[in-house]
Amino acid sequence: MNTIHKSKLLQRRRWRIRKKINGTALRPRLTVKFTGKHIYAQAVDDDNAVTLAFLSSLDAELRKKKIAANVAGAKELGSAFAEKAKAAGIASVVFDRNGALYHGKVKQFADAAREGGLQF
Asked: What's the pTM value of the predicted model, to 2 decimals?
């Protein structure tokens, strides 16, 4: 049987998205990753291969709030990431959903980041 595993399909979606978007110093790529327990978000300058801002649910302040990798946690982390990015001088980003569908957790994260002042 000729089946393709879910992980290979996810990687194909990532490559397809990555071909179309690119982060620069003026407008970095905001990538978000959800695991079973945690959420990771970073702003990446692809031209210089540098991470400009990073935040995860493993951060000390966010651990006290016990943020889970669900819709409520995504909303809270999105607004916290927007504050951290604005402090780093980032006003506008290109959103990279990292192969995930744009609904649920991913959409809540993006909406919270927009409300926090980031422009997509």
From this structure: 0.88
Intra-chain end-to-end CA distance of the chain, in Å = 42
Q: Which domains does the chain have, with CATH numbers?
A: 22-115 (3.30.420.100)
Q: Which of 108, 30, 32 is nearest to 75 (CA)?
A: 108
The helix/strand/coil state of 50 is strand
63-118 pLDDT, tens digit each: 998 889 999 999 999 999 999 999 999 999 999 999 888 999 999 999 999 999 99
Instruction: Give the position of tokens 């422009």.
Output: 119
d(CA 79, CA 11): 28
69: tokens are 């990798």
